[in-house]
Structures are given as C-alpha cells and as structure tokens.
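Shipment paperwork, digital attachment
Item: protein structure file
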Amino acid sequence: MAQDPKTAHPTPPQQPQQQSPPGETREMTPKPDHGEQSYKGSGRLAGRAAIITGADSGIGRAVAIAFAREGADVLISYLDEHDDAKETARWVEQAGRRAVVVAGDVADEAHCKSLVERAERDFGKLDILVNNAAMQRSYESIEDISAEEWDRTFRTNIYSMFYLCKAAIPRMKPGSAIVNTSSINAKSPSPHLLAYATTKGAIANFTAGLAQLVAKQGIRVNAVAPGPIWTPLIPSTMPEEAVKSFGKNTPIGRAGQPAELAPAYVLLASGEASYITGALLPVTGGRPML
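Attachment content:
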C-alpha cells in the first residue's frame, strides 16, 4: 500500500542533539532508516563488485545494504568510525555478499589507490565506484573558515573523487558505473555551508565532464543530489536549533532518510540506466534544483 510521503518517516521537530564530527549512528534520535527492514533486492547488480566511500553510516550504509541485496560485493571505505563500519558489513554479509572493510582517509591519494587495488585483489574486478565520503562544517562568517579547513573540505569531498576515478577507470570494463554524491547545495548553496556547498557544485561539474571523457570506454558517470538527509553528519556539524528543524523547509516537510536515497544509486549503477550518463539526479523532498 502506498504511503503518504509527508508521514512515511519522522517529521520535525527532532530532539535537540549534538555530537563531535563525524558523528555516530547509535547516538542519533530518531535512528536513521538505512533500509535494513524495507529494501528488497531483485538481482539488478548480480555478480558485480563495488567500492563505496563513506559507507560506515548514512547514505553510504543505505547504498551498501541495497547493493548487497541486489547481488553486489562491497568494499566499505570509511575514515575511523569502526563500530558503524562493522554494522554496515554485518548487513552486507547477511545479504549473502562479501564485505571488505577498509579504514583510512580518502583525502590521501595513496590511500585511494590502495582502495582500488584492494577491491581488485579481493573481488577480482571493480564494476562500480560510489564516491560518497564528505566533510561538512557550519559557519556564520567567511572569516571563521580557516584556509586549512577549506583545503581539508576540498581534499575530502572533491580531490578524493579525482584520485579514486583516476585509479579506478583504467581497471573498469565497458558497462561499469561511477556514481558521485553531490547535493542540492550544488545549485542552491546554503551560506552557512560555504566550503561544503562549493565542493558539491564542483562535484556536479566534475561528473558532467568526466562522463563525456569516459563515454568512449563504455563507462557511465552520474551523480545523485540529496536534499536534507538524516545522517550523523547533521547533529555533528550543525547547531542544535538547525538540527531540531532539519528538513522542515522541504515541500514534503521533513528530512529524507538514507533508505530513500539508495534506489537512485541502484538505478544509476545498474544496466537499466544504460543511456544515462552525465546526469545530476535530485532527491530533495521537493526542493527545486535552481
């Protein structure tokens, strides 16, 4: 039975809460829905091998669960949230697929190369790359953003995509897919997320350009543009009042859940999207991508 999207998941106000970055799923109220009890696979990624960065929690965990239930083995790349990453791996393995868990910083080029090498060694191939890891911080003034933090945000959010794509593409065969995580901030930037929003615009442009560059190799490149999604990034990087009302400014009236993003990634990674490349797919709760 169809559900009213306005009431299908928790609505604001959320309980006031704060965490230290990058945040942990178990500390969140309400707990995010990653599709643990709802996502049903149908073999759309059967026999494929994927790397998902930032796969310990949030959108990355939901995508890992969905990919596994669609038949893919998954390399779970994450920074240092070990407990969250183990939980993601548990769900992947419960779906009957292989989970490889690798901690490390995707801002480092050598680590990105090692992720690709590890996937090829453990899975024998690499069919799908999901660039999802991100850093976000809120500031009231540009004067409050240090040059070091600006650089760190770019290295985590956009340099990592360049490093991973450069390492992965020579190993990918025709029919492979890259899916990047952009944001509604790519087109409608929040002034308090200046560094983050700027990288998300760069990701949209990078996606469109790379798609044209590798089309001749039979590799597709697309991006998903989430709106406000309830992940550990929110209580760990936003003021309490912003967390309390998070998602209220959408036409649907609430934050999205990670589980509501996963089908977009599955589509773009699957053969059903064989004529889609260079696209930016909005999943924004009705907020327009201007």
